[in-house]
Design brief:
The protein is of the alpha+beta class and 424 residues long. It contains 13 helices and 8 strands. Strands 1-4-5-8 form a 4-stranded mixed beta sheet, with helices on one face. Strands 2-3-7-6 form a 4-stranded antiparallel beta sheet, with helices on one face. A hairpin with a 3-residue loop joins strand 2 and strand 3. Its EC number is 1.3.8.5.
Length: 424
Amino acid sequence: MASIARALRPLSRTTPVRLASKRVAAYRPIESAYAFSTTPRRRDADLADLAPTPISHLSETESMMADSVSKLAQEQIGPKVRDMDEAEAMDPAIIEKLFEQGVMGIEIPEEFGGAGMNFTSAIVAIEELARVDPSVSVMVDVHNTLVNTLILRYCNTQAQRMWLPKLSTGTLGSFCLSEPVSGSDAFALQTKAEKTADGYRINGSKMWITNAQEAGFFIVFANLDPSKGYKGITAFVVEKGTPGFSIAKKEKKLGIRASSTCVLNFDDVEIPKANLVGEEGQGYKYAINILNEGRIGIAAQMTGLALGAWENAAKYVWNDRMQHQIAQAYTEIAAARALVYNAARKKEAGQDFVKDAAMAKLYASQVAGRVSGSAIEWMGGMGFVREGVAEKYWRDSKIGAIYEGTSNIQLQTIAKLLQKEYTN
């Protein structure tokens, strides 16, 4: 299979919108004189003359990304889903294939070995992967929307040249923020960093860290000056194998079991000055901004999961007696997808998307839970046994209301922004 990224690079530079072949599970572009920009942000762009285009329609590049990743997922990942879930481990060959196909560096510029595509291309890839295996999807999501984006946005050119080629071509990344005593209140973290003659020393622990077992590159948030509270939080790069850094425990989970979630320990971990991400004391700002974008990725994971569960069940039970429930479920999925793609487009346009991202994640996770749960009931006994994947979709859906901000945190964000909008 030729590299997905290599095949789509020419299109990402000039991306006309065209009518693609119909496929029930993926949105398709229509004829328009205007194409969505493939640049990450368009804050200074004049949008006045942009022809109204349905948010559910994709550029040619995005559409082909959806098709290519769908084919990759069905052919390369699908046959291994059940075995990986039972073993609670990611097949290394899948990680290798994802890097080989360019799916791990979607927004990284070509000069650093990436695909040089836009944010929505990453979102469609995450969604397509989740239709087959949400465990693989979240691995790709965290790597692209959190790790790669943080380095791209906040590191200087020298640091980007050091790290991005690795992240594009073979080194999996992990985002290390949560701790045993700081989950939803992430900025109450206790991990400390102190300056040394040659760089920094880190002590503490992290919990609930995605990709930890397979990653070779960790972005670690630690407080460099506790007297400043959360304004002392700073981000650092710690590479696998650094003395004093260890993976203490791999969690046994209800769902997304092939995705590793681990406890990490830092015992006098020494890193050089070059491993500072951005500026000292800015880590809390970086985390907030990146997690707002990451929530769109999690929302896409949930809509992909819901689609996968719906398709699996609908093919098995479709009949006149079930058609109303099937139609209701698909309508909810379509509504969730509209929220996801609207948030992604607003992010690309440089508009304020925080409320949109929160609504997308909140609703998509709710829909994923409802649809995957209903799918089990539609299928009866066959939905309840582990011979199929129906029960796995439901187990995997539960995490959507928890990570990258619980549903209550999303509701709090939405309410806070609504209050500001309507009462001031």
